[in-house]
Structure prediction request, 316 residues.
Amino acid sequence: MCPCYRDVASFLTLRTRILEVLEGSPSLAQSDVHFVVVDDTGGHDNDIDQLKGIPDVQVITPPFNLGHQRALVFGLRLMLSEVLDSDLIVTMDSDGEDRPEDLLRLLEPLQSAPNERGMLCVARRTKRSESLQFRIMYVVFRTTFHTLTGTTVRSGNYAAYRGWLAKRMLIHPYFDLCYSSTLVGLDMAVTAVPCPRGHRYAGRSHMNMLRLFMHGVRMLMPFTDRIAARALTAFSAMFALTITLVLVVVGFRVFTDLTIPGWTTAALLGLLIVSFVALGNFIVLFAVFSQSRGISLANLESWKDERPERFVSSSE
Prediction:
């Protein structure tokens, strides 16, 4: 399952390399392989027609651009009725940055434990090749993310699991917000497979700073409960410190002859007001943002000009 935003040339190379990798695997060489491409342009990319004549490729077109994360969720939910519990599902980007060379290592834990239906394997990024500016921003984001949530997400869309798990976890509403962080944010056993990030096969990335920022915010949304708990703890500590300082100032004024600067009372009162306003704004803005992003995807998988044809699985 691949989201595709004007990356048909890259996907064609990706498909060829995936088939070559699978042909070299004794356990997977005879498997029925099906590619599902989600056209995230909403039907505006004419190059996508090149894929419609390929027998093992299914194209899904949402009504509008969803972003690569939610496009994956849209496509997966739409295809769940066609998936068997024993089927292996792999999600990855179509530009080549999720390397086909790592596919066998990602699938190996699933193949070695066929009875572990709830196993989830994700690619943990070990090496990146971005610009210095991106690396600096990525370090800042990881630090902020860990501060707010207490965890880190070093994986993207590259993941593998069985149809049995997909049918159960993908109905979780957090997937409406973000695919990659929800995978590791839910209470599931995750097997992380170290995988370096590859290079784009063709064209250029359409990710700009605004989209990157929005993606970072969406990654935080599945951790709303953790962020709220940490924010409440920080607020409580600030509030307790403010009350303690107020009591100390009152104690000095009542029980001693020491002179307390006039600005002290104003500063403490201001600190107390700011803590209340900051907490209120944080909760309101985060809740509104989360709801606005989630509602737009709710029940969207029911929209389709025509239902996809049923895949023929090797397990049937």
In short: Residues 236 and 300 are 40 Å apart (CA to CA). Residues 2-224+296-302 form a domain with the Spore Coat Polysaccharide Biosynthesis Protein SpsA; Chain A fold (CATH 3.90.550.10). The two ends are 20 Å apart (CA to CA).
